[in-house]
Amino acid sequence: MTGLNAQDSAIYLAIKSVNDKSKKLDPYLFETSAVAIDSRVSTIDPITYGRTRNFVDGAVTYISPYISRGVISTKQVLTKLLDQGHAPKKIEKFIQELTWRDYWQQVWSTKGDAIDVDLKNPQTEVTNQGIPEAITSGQTGIEAIDRAIETFYRTGYLHNHVRMYIASIACNVAKSHWKAPAKWMYYHLLDGDWASNALSWQWVAGTNSNKKYYANQDNINKYCHTRQQETFLDLSYEELPKMAVPSKLSHTIDMKLTTNLPESTPIVIDTTLPSLIYNFYNLDPNWKKGVLANRILLLEPSHFKKYPISENSIRFMLDLGKNIEGLQVFVGEFQDLVAQYHLEKTYYKEHPTNLHYKGIQEPRDWMFTVEGYYPSFFAFWKKCKKELVW
Ligand SMILES: Cc1cc2nc3c(=O)[nH]c(=O)nc-3n(C[C@H](O)[C@H](O)[C@H](O)COP(=O)(O)OP(=O)(O)OC[C@H]3O[C@@H](n4cnc5c(N)ncnc54)[C@H](O)[C@@H]3O)c2cc1C
Predict the structure, then answer these.
(1) Is the distance from the beta carbon of residue 30 to the nearest atom of ligand 1 less than 6 Å?
(2) What is the pLDDT of the chain when averaged over all its residues?
(3) Is residue 160 pLDDT above 90, yes or no?
(4) 174-231: pLDDT as tens digits
(5) Which CATH architecture has domain 117-253?
(6) Where are the domains of the chain?
(7) Ligand 1 centre and the CA of 196: distance in Å?
(8) Distance from the CA of 40 to the CA of which of 7, 230, 254, 389 falls in 20 to 30 A?
């Protein structure tokens, strides 16, 4: 910087600062290499997280796409933070959020397909089984929501608070049943996880909680840093539940969501070796690492018919699979894979979508030993907490 006058120095420093900032990790760039994932986990700041997580620009972690795809586990994340010397008391909020993930997984494991329908209470005041077109086209007129939906289609990520806002607008303001909008969101999310998804939608819609969740414009303005007024949400919490469906949201559509699976190509199997079955929910690169085995990413059309996903989500899954050496993709049903390739010794990880697999089932990695269905998260958390050294 020598030889620059004061004005040039100021310009130089301003440009340098912009360049330095642009070099910061782009939170929406969901890289798939093991190194990138590890570095993403290493940047977690669980203390700032506790204070800021509800703000759209808060210190959230963006790690759920990797957890949902089974690349890393909640337990690995927790262990890493504790190994860094964080005291559980100081990072309680963060541990609690990770525990929500395991909680929903336990509910799915015990309740199975019962989570596909209203779990505790029937959804009230439902007028349609579709989704407002204004949501799918990002034209609700609520600036923060429309901007987030635009980013969502590009990145496959939505902040938790925005997910809650969208679910509330769809179910409680536009009076859509939760299922179709939930499937739309799951379709586009890179972190699509049917337990966290369906059960959170049900929590907002009041079918898995004691009351419906509402957020008004003031709340959205606060957490999304907007200053919008006079929208259909610019009401008090007394007025919101009583309002008629705003005209902006009255047109609902029935979305046909389909999954474009890759072409099925022949795979090469060594029948003297065991076969490890990977799938949409298990892409763990460290699972039986070093063991000689056939490694097969099983993409069952029946699974994706029930839980359709977008092209982006498919691409993300296939890219994550590249971290697993020798992984071959089989598009077809489990029984056809076994019959076609004469598989004898198959291994897979426990998951509610695998109940029809045959072979040796291995457990998933949970943070705590607490198992089974707890009607409330806080009853579950109370038990889990006891396993931490406070
Ligand atoms: C309507 C709705 C739909 C959702 N759908 C999904 C989904 O399909 N897949 C999914 O993974 N999560 C879903 N969530 C939960 C939550 O929004 C995401 O896990 C979180 O926003 C992911 O971003 P992050 O990793 O930056 O989270 P952070 O806030 O940084 O949290 C860290 C981790 O804690 C866990 N976590 C945090 N909040 C929650 C929560 N509310 N429920 C469960 N686990 C949580 C996640 O594993 C997350 O990766 C949904 C929430 C709502 C309200």
Answers:
(1) no
(2) 94
(3) yes
(4) 999 999 999 999 999 999 999 999 999 999 999 999 999 999 999 999 999 999 999 9
(5) Orthogonal Bundle (1.10)
(6) 30-112, 117-253, 275-362
(7) 7
(8) 389
Q: From the CB of 167, is ligand 1 less than 6 Å away?
A: yes
Alpha-carbon span 28 to 163, nearest angstrom = 16
Rounded Cα distance between 37 and 110, Å, is: 30
Ligand 1 atom 43: residue of nearest CA? 101
The pair phi, psi for residue 362, each rounded to 5°, is -110, 150
Comparing CA positions, the residue from 59, 68, 67 lying closest to residue 27 is 59
Min mean pLDDT across 21-30, 201-210, 300-309, 320-329 is at 21-30
Total residue count of the chain as it appears in this document:
390
Atom 49 (ligand 1) nearest CA: 64
Measured between alpha carbons, how far is 97 from 124 in angstroms, rounded to an integer? Answer: 28
Q: Per residue, what are the HEC states of 199-266?
A: HHHHHHHCCCCCCCCCCCHHHHHHHHCCCCCCCCCCCCCCCHHHCCCCHHHCCEECCCCCCCCCCCCC
Q: Span 23-46, mean pLDDT?
A: 92
Q: Which residue has the tokens 């860094």?
A: 84
Residues forming beta bridges with residue 241, ordered by sequence position: none
| Reported confidence tier of residue 15, pLDDT bands at 50, 70, 90 | very low
The C-alpha atoms of residue 297 and residue 264 are separated, in whole angstroms, by: 12
Q: Which amino acid is located at 157 in the chain?
A: Y
Ligand 1 centre to CA of 160 (Å) is: 6
Query: 30-112, what's its fold?
Result: 1.25.40
User: The pTM is what?
Assistant: 0.94
- How confident is the model at residue 264, as a pLDDT? 86
Residue 143 beta carbon below 6 angstroms from any ligand 1 atom = no
Residue 201 CB less than 6 A away from ligand 1: yes
